[in-house]
Amino acid sequence: MKRKYILSAGLIGIIFMMLGQLSFSINDTLVKEIVIDSSNNMSVINIIFLRGLITTFLILMFLVFYEKKNIVNIIKIKKYHQRGIYEVLTAICFFTGLILLPVAEVYTLLMTNPFFVTIFAFLFLKEKVGVRRWGAVAIGFIGVIFVVNPQNISFNYLYIFPIIAAVFLTIRDIATKGIATKTNSFEIIFITSILMTLFSGVGSLFFEFTFKIEYLPNLFISSIFLTIAYIFSVLTIFYAPLSLTASARYSVIVFGMIFGYLVLNEIPSTNMVIGATIISLSGLFVIRRQKKLGRIE
Which of 38, 58, 190, 192 could covalently link to 43 via disulfide, CB atoms 3.0 to 4.6 Å apart? Predict the structure, then answer.
């Protein structure tokens, strides 16, 4: 007799979070490949703009021809724009930090997001957060520190930028929690994509970039994976408590290491392997715990 496996909503949320981070990692790897080829680190703004145009177009086509949605009505929904603005504010603070600070330090500080998510979910959404869940988030962050291996970090007021980015990312997730349903994920990400494209379009005016036709395949594929990542980032919030999926966000670092090695020939250091292992164990602990509580049969 075959056994039936029934996934709890919480476990579905964790899986969606990890699939979203996987998609973000593929997208980031393809974008980085273009940046490396262009030999201009600031070309990332221009690439994000071009990718945004493709992503917005793909989502628009889906909404119009498949879901038969009225685009004008979608654009009128203020809550979608509020959520999109938080995404833009996150990007502004993140890229400001990226320009002014070492990359390792920016990512370390940005990965404080699971802490903020857990705290905000506990305070504002009244989610129950046990000691084990706090522990999983803390252990995952220890793994992050091992991965980035920041050297000689001393106090710097510029650290406020990635920290504020992490806070805005948290506020975005809370805003999503209030509007996400099973049927409006494409509507939400459509407005977000429009706003991000407008922001990066303005930013790209200040940086020179030479576009090559061979960039098109990477741009198109990255746009598809960005769309998938956007969808999962909304669905995970709909299905599961924010504090439950928080530690699964760390998986983006593990996926990033894998694709960095496979696509960009970036050899992971011993610290990165140790950190990735710690992060993976943190995520597996949460899944194992949810499996018990959700009674997956």
Answer: 38
Cα 147–chain centre separation: 18
The secondary structure of residue 291, as a DSSP letter, is H
| 64 close to 205: Cβ distance less than 8 angstroms | no
The count of other CB atoms within 10 Å of the CB of residue 2 is 4
The residue ranges of DSSP E strands in the chain, in sequence order, are none
- Dihedral (CA of 287, 290, 252, 232) sign: positive
- Residue 237, Cβ density class (10 Å: 0-12 exposed, 13-18 middle, ≥19 buried): buried
Rounded CA-CA distance 152/172 in Å is 32
Total Cβ atoms within 10 A of residue 284? 11
Question: Tell me: the pLDDT tens digits for 197-241?
Answer: 999 999 888 888 777 888 899 999 999 999 999 999 999 998 888
Q: What is the pTM of this model?
A: 0.82
Domain boundaries in the chain?
A: 11-294
Q: Output phi, psi for 184, to 5 deg.
A: -110, 15
Q: Report how far apart, in Å, the C-alpha atoms of 127 and of each of 11, 110, 133, 250, 296 are.
A: 16, 23, 12, 20, 21
